[in-house]
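Quarterly update, task 2.4: zinc ion-bound model.
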Amino acid sequence: MNIKKGDQVKILKGKDRGKSGKVIKVNVSYGLVTVEGLNIHQKNVRAKNAGEKGQVVKLPTPLHVSNLAVVCPACGKSTRIGYRRSTGGNKERYCKQCNATI
Ligand SMILES: [Zn+2]
């Protein structure tokens, strides 16, 4: 899993293919990522109590990581992410296009 909350990602498949947005939620065990404002699906919510109205709610649906690419904040391209040791000895992510630390 190399996508984190707050990352900018580009959608590669589905109806919002080609669009990019910010990651708002990551489900690591299922490999699912929710992108703010993208892959919106309508959900019809029925009235639970008498007197309430059923309504249509629009919610962003999670996408699988394999359908997403991280957009590098340094070069602005959708890129593959690599891992390396930083000078301090920590693991860090970097852009394979421009070598910038993400
Ligand atoms: Zn880059």
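Highlight for this quarter: The two ends are 15 Å apart (CA to CA).
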